[in-house]
Design goal:
Blueprint (H helix, E strand, L loop, with lengths): L1 E6 L6 H14 L7 E4 L11 H14 L7 H15 L5 H22 L7 E5 L5 H6 L8 H10 L5 E6 L2 H10 L3 H4 L3 H20 L1 H4 L2 E5 L8 H12 L7
Parallel strand pairs: 1-3, 1-4, 2-3, 4-5
Helix pairs in contact: 1-11, 3-4, 7-9
């Protein structure tokens, strides 16, 4: 199984690009049985949609897999628990950060054990996205040494598709999102938060271990750029535009 993770700041266009990638891959001949999509998780436990309920149930099942997880996954989750405990905003955000790292790491661990060797799985957020939630916040800049340690031990997907956009676009979209905790930020706090997220991704891109698997796609402004073109260029560079043999 080839695992492709879309990662990036909130509002960068990950989900929209993911949907366009899937649409084009199916048009190009990748069979339904060979293409799997892992949607983004439910954000707020108190405002769950039916899909959100299914996501949470799936997470509960994943937790039962922890004893069978590989040593790399267990070591990473120990690191993530310590990093989350240093989250300066609140206990809620610390729990949320670790919940994300736990979910992403166990999902990837399960994918690695899958026997669907010819499948392509596109994940809208996976283990690399955990850095966003563990280290970026509007209170203080990320600790570079902690992000570098993350780069050394995080379990990696086969391809990291980093979706980027200009900071002002990210701030505008963040302020307009319905997610209650981040929507509560004022413009100044949202701008600091985006700056800190981009600092995290700057370190991630410089890590040799991640950089060799990373493909960066910039969506200059989702309101005006052609997502179709961005998806087509991405598919060409990933070389996954036909059915696996």
């Amino acid at each position: 199984m080839k695992v492709i993770e879309l990662t990036g700041c909130t509002g960068s266009g990950k989900t929209t690009l993911c949907e366009e990638l899937v649409r084009q891959l199916l048009l190009l001949g990748l069979r339904d049985g060979d293409l799997r999509v892992l949607p983004p998780p439910a954000r707020s436990l108190w405002r769950l949609t039916p899909q959100g309920v299914r996501n949470v149930a799936a997470e509960a099942r994943l937790v039962t897999q922890f004893p069978a997880a590989c040593a790399e996954t267990r070591a990473f989750l120990g690191f993530a628990a310590r990093a989350a405990s240093r989250q300066p905003e609140s206990t809620y955000f610390a729990i949320r950060a670790f919940r994300g790292a736990l979910r992403h790491a166990l999902r990837l661990d399960a994918m690695r054990q899958s026997r669907a060797t010819n499948a392509v799985l596109i994940a809208d957020e996976l283990t690399i996205q955990s850095a966003h939630y563990l280290f970026a916040n509007p209170v203080r800049p990320p600790r570079r040494d902690q992000v570098e340690r993350f780069c050394e031990i995080v379990p990696l997907p086969d391809v990291v598709l980093y979706v980027d956009a200009p900071a002002h676009v990210l701030v505008e979209r963040m302020l307009s999102r319905p997610d209650p905790p981040r929507r509560a930020l004022d413009a100044a706090a949202a701008s600091r938060y985006v700056d800190h997220v981009l600092e995290v991704y700057d370190v991630l891109q410089r890590s040799g271990r991640i950089a060799e698997r990373l493909l960066r796609v910039e969506i200059a402004d989702p309101r005006h750029c052609s997502l179709s073109d961005a998806a087509r260029v991405t598919i060409d560079r990933l070389d996954i535009g036909s059915s696996p043999k």
